[in-house]
Write a structure and sequence with these properties.
2 copies of one chain form a homodimer. The first copy, chain A, has 315 residues and is of the alpha/beta class. Helix content of chain A is 39%, strand content 14%. The first copy, chain A, has 12 helices and 8 strands. An 8-stranded parallel beta barrel of chain A has the order 1-2-3-4-5-6-7-8, surrounded by 4 helices. In chain A, helix 2 packs antiparallel against helix 9 and helix 10 packs antiparallel against helix 11. The radius of gyration of chain A is 19 Å and the shape is globular. At the A-B interface, helix 7, helix 8, helix 9, helix 10 and helix 12 of A face helix 7, helix 8, helix 9, helix 10 and helix 12 of B.
Chain lengths: 315, 315
């Protein structure tokens, strides 16, 4: 698949950080950055941008804050073809704490929101655009959003100045027919805008769903090294780069960081295909109960987990 | 997804045996059988059927031969709703060594063949049908078969009495658009016949491709417990059963064997998503070089493997 409009965004540090409170070493983050640059990845999302009073620094690593000076320790002035992205949660970053683009190495703000937050999300996206940044809106948990509410969201986004809107499979619960239906809906409602896709791998469908989104016209694609991310993780970068035929992408640097960093890291952090995550995905549930189970002494008792979430139903 | 015509076939022992020369304990095979029965799985494929002079017994376990008395040690007379299947490779089983169905607990012979073996495959399938068995033909490695040859195969199968023909993604290289094209071709060429699907998981697409086959009308679906199988393995049974809504299928017994048998087994046998298998899948290659690499001292050096298979190309 070669389509020059396609952009790949690495969110290894940002989504992977959900598993370790963003306590990655600077050496690791630098290696992810160097890999993205060498592999031709278009954007690297280095973390969440948050105001300092939102989270305690002694519990959360630097990539939960994305302070300008800490970003520059990794990327310098970032004179590369890989743009730098940060994710903003509604209410976690004060407008006054966002400096003008001319004073920042960040290129892109991605605003994550639930359907009921869409007005706040558009306000924040417009604000960062006015300060000189690119912006996207990433509507989370769409698999739980009722039709009328989703229509309202799309109408609001259509009227906004925000150029990119993301289909997000937060629970890893969407099948290809869901993807096709939502992509049809999004592209019809948002003419002229770019559609992005962010998948989760609970049912081993993150890469497959990314391909379906490409077929249906999505041009901004999230992936992570060896699929690291919350719970079951995301679309594996190595699969996506192997699939895309654009000559600017290179697989070898990605294989290198996988063998040198990701495989050892997987021995410390249990992301990936585990039965509790598979079960929440197939049930279209938030993975929080599965993550709690994976942190407990019973983590390997899948039958007990299944019984607990099915509440005595016939299984 | 509920469609009453859909049948699920477990090939845990048969395809998984490619990783350990079928040296599973009788206790393990019995547990797989009990799980299939309890979970409502329609067929269990217990191994390859081979004449005794084809392979040395001191190197291969019983499930490479499927001698009647050894099958009965596991399943007795198999008075259950789960039918018993064996796979036959062309030239590995003498016709005279196949007893009449009235003397066997086997229900189904699946004949695996390459395109150039189709006449022999049809001859063998007709032979076992005449002896009272069900039969399928499983055309391997279709991703490497040229169009004219595939058309000939389909014409021959169409004229035969064989009722079920399998789409087999031997290398785990097929994408959804390949699946759609092949399913269109198979169903058009084989009116009235059942189409089956057997996937491999090199690119984490085995389950996704199974769903695409279901959408396109396939009604016989292969899967294995925790996806065990050659190299990257097959479509995970737990995902397929979670997806199918037919009330006869139960997930809980599958989760039980996964936690009690498959997770410990995975510490001994390296099936699953490893970079060498991912690379052969994305290159549409046989996994043999990846399997050799995974057996070598260099197994964790993915960059070296990639360089070796790309033969100095720009990567």
């Amino acid at each position: 698949m070669f389509r020059k409009e396609i952009k790949v965004l690495d969110c290894t540090v940002r989504d992977g950080g959900l598993m370790n409170k963003w306590q990655f070493s600077k050496n690791f983050v630098k290696k992810v950055y160097d890999t993205c640059v060498e592999a031709g990845v278009d954007y690297m999302e280095i973390g969440y941008i948050s105001s300092e009073d939102q989270f305690p620094r002694d519990q959360y690593g630097p990539w939960k804050f994305c302070a300008e000076e800490e970003l520059r320790e990794i990327v310098g002035d970032n004179n590369t073809n890989t743009k730098l992205s940060v994710m903003a949660d509604i209410g976690r970053i004060k407008f006054d704490d966002i400096r003008p683009k001319s004073e920042s190495v960040v290129d892109l703000f991605r605003v994550a929101c639930y359907d009921y937050q869409i007005d706040k999300a558009i306000e924040l996206a417009h604000h960062v655009m006015d300060k000189g940044y690119e912006a996207t809106i990433n509507l989370m948990a769409v698999s739980k959003v009722a039709e009328r509410s989703l229509n309202e969201v799309l109408e609001d986004v259509a009227k906004s100045r925000v150029g990119t809107f993301y289909l997000v499979d937060s629970f890893g619960s969407l099948y290809s027919e869901d993807i096709h239906g939502l992509m049809d809906k999004y592209t019809k409602a948002l003419p002229g805008k770019t559609i992005g896709f962010h998948g989760h791998n609970n049912q081993q469908l993150a890469f497959a769903n990314t391909i379906e989104c490409i077929i249906k016209g999505a041009n901004m694609l999230d992936a992570t090294m060896l699929g690291i991310g919350r719970g079951a993780g995301n679309c594996p970068m190595e699969l996506l780069i192997s699939f895309l035929k654009n000559p600017k992408y290179k697989l070898k640097p990605i294989l290198r960081i996988i063998q040198e960093e990701m495989i050892p890291l997987q021995k410390q952090i249990d992301w990936g295909y585990f039965m509790p995550y598979m079960i929440t995905g197939s049930q279209n549930d938030h993975p929080r109960s599965a993550m709690a189970w994976m942190d407990s002494d019973q983590k390997d008792d899948y039958v007990a987990y299944y019984e607990s979430v099915m509440h005595g139903k016939d299984i």
